[in-house]
Amino acid sequence: MSDRLAGRTALVTGAGSGIGRQVAGRFVAEGARVVFSDRDVAAAAAAAGDRDGTLAVEMDISNEDSVQAGFAAARAAAFEPDVVVANAGVQLFGQDAQIADLELDVWQRTISINLTGTFLTVKHAVRAMLGRGGSIILTGSPTGLNGEGKDFTAYSSSKAGMHGMARAVAAAYATRGIRVNTVVPGYTETSLVTAISTDPAERSAIISRIPMGRPGTAVDVEGIMVYLASDESSYATGAIFRVDGGMTSL
Known about the structure:
The protein is of the alpha/beta class. It has helices at 18-29, 41-48, 64-76, 104-129, 153-173, 194-197, 200-207, 218-229; strands at 9-13, 33-38, 54-58, 83-86, 134-139, 178-185, 240-243. The chain has a single domain (9-243), classed as Rossmann fold (3-Layer(aba) Sandwich).
């Protein structure tokens, strides 16, 4: 690794598994001090391991008290973040559906975690960065850009809302040194999409819509996150960076 993030302190939500865990680990390898935050603090601690410059904190992003407590714990341990990756999220396979068949409680649970949870994460990230500047990175989805998620009304809507939020916050704080960008992974095989990856027909169908002809992995996403966390992206804000094998180009 190149120590591209030496001197940085990052906080990553959903760092106990999947993309969040991979990105947080890469940040450590690039020289950053990293807060691994997750609703499952044991998973966050396992992901952080015993590496120097890491801290595990509990954070349920759908609960503002929990988000505040997570940022406060980081601050108390001298891990004041100048990079925040708002990555935690949920996709309720088997419950999310086309709108005529979607139950209100599934909609509300999805929105409370993916959209409201991202709002709370970004809100407290901005507060932590005011007067210092920093980089905020959101994990978006192709379903928020095109019709890829026609059978996932709640998830698609939550991700589209995140994309809009990122643009608004980027515009509001650009003159104060806070950059906000969105990374859009394509179909990425992590524990979040087990319902697809373990179903041969479903998996084949979605891969057939990816020009590169293969699913993504968490490793595919980490590089663009490092770029956005570093000074190399100092003129990038309010943008969407697609890492989807060409899925949204169709």
